Here is the input.
Amino acid sequence: MRDDEAAFTALFEAHYDSVLRYGRRRTDEQTARDVAAETFLVAWRRGVPDDDPLPWLYGVARNCLANAARSSRRETRALPRLAGPSATPDHADASNDATVVRAALALLPERDREALLLVTWEDLPTRAAARAAGCSESAFAVRLHRARKRLAALLEPRLPTEIS
Here is the structure.
């Protein structure tokens, strides 16, 4: 049992910050911390593949985030009178490129956003990102290509209509 504890401690120390950053980029601080804790609880209970644990941990964190989002949606549906009006961000007030990119990412479907984030923010190679996303490498490559095209279309400057 001591070997298991030592191996888990080494895994935790090596990857906790990465898993926490993964969560922070996708949700609020408290939920990100909860997701990181839940990810390592799953890792402790189920064990982790020896070859490359980080993509596997990202996959678990992705599932934990999805569970948190479902829970939040259920709560919102259960308490409609307590929920205030939803605030719609005004993307016209974006003052810098990061804000514009975040706004464009928010408009993408979840699968596209996740593909882009795994490769850019998490800096995973395609094979590892596919593993984290739970699909084949070729399916992920197609997903990533389409996501990049959709993001580029959202970021493309709109030209004013010519007046004749």
Remarks:
- Confidence is low (pLDDT under 50) at residues 78-95.
- Helices lie at 2-24, 29-46, 53-78, 97-107, 110-120, 126-133, 137-155.
- DSSP finds seven helices and no strands in the chain.
